[in-house]
Amino acid sequence: SDYVKFISWMRGSSGGAARSWSIWWNEENAHYRKMPFASKIWFFIKSALFLTIAEGIARSDLLEADTTLNQPKIGVTFVVCAIVVLFALWWLLERVEHMMPYPVRRTIGILIAVGLTVSVVTALVEDSNFIRYGLAAYYGIGAMCQIGLLYGSKFVKNFYFVHDLVCGHIIFIPLFVLAILQVPHYIQTWLLYHNALSSDVVVSNILRYARKSQESGGASAPNEDLVEQISELRKVVQKQEQMIENLGGGGGRSS
Predict the structure, then answer these.
(1) Contacts of 186 (CB under 8 A, 6+ apart)
(2) What is the pTM assigned to this prediction?
(3) CB count, 10 Å around CB of 1?
(4) In the chain, at which end, N or C, are there fewer CB atoms within 10 A of the end residue's CB?
(5) Residue 122 neighbours by CB distance under 10 Å
(6) What is the DSSP string of 25-80?
């Protein structure tokens, strides 16, 4: 599936940019370090704007919560320490994973990922101030990573990896939900065949081509392959039209 391909691409380490996020990232960002200082000035200005936005969000009252009135059930300090420890374990796992069996490495990676997810969600639920802090940190870390690219720092690559991994899951999770509901399947089928095949747009073009082919062939025998394709196409159209009618009838009865 596309999700498996995405994860394989993110974790790949060889095979070119098409098979490895790491190689793709290196190729895409190698030019920053070689840029002349005059060109880097614009990126320094961009980083300064990011820092200004981060400072404004941190000082604002966006989603501000008073923890003195509503004490968190789980200490925020404990949750933050857990997140830091899990990130440290993740970093350590990447350094020693080549010495570990695959089942052990995979199990530890899953446990760390689940722990990070639970810790982050807990922090956001227990104290809504973390949402504001998270937005501010997003812009602040973005500014620092931009400066790191300009000086060729390899450490910022980890932040970009996490960013792309999270963005990829933000895209895939709604697709998973919609695939489970199977609603887009019916909508896509109805739109496709109602606007195209059911209005004879495609069928008329194919039949016109078949008629021209027969006329150009004169009295010769018709192309058997073409006749068979047209016959199969008509069966598909009839089947899809029947499906559309059933969906429309089902919708009318349900309403």
Answers:
(1) 247
(2) 0.59
(3) 8
(4) C
(5) 19
(6) HHHHHTHHHHS-HHHHHHHHHHHHHHHHHHHHHHHS-TT---TTTS--SS-HHHHH
Place of tokens 């150009």: 216
Query: Which class for 142: exposed (0-12), middle (13-18), buried (19 or more C-beta within 10 A)?
Result: buried
Six token digits for residue 51: 């820092």
**Cα separation, 255 vs 170, whole angstroms:** 34
Q: Which residues fall within 8 angstroms of residue 54, CB to CB, at 6 or more apart? A: 136, 137, 138, 139, 140, 143
**C-alpha to C-alpha distance for 52 and 45, rounded to whole angstroms:** 11
C-alpha–C-alpha distance, residues 138 and 53, integer Å = 10
pLDDT in tens, 105-158: 888 888 888 888 888 888 777 777 778 888 888 899 999 999 999 988 888 888
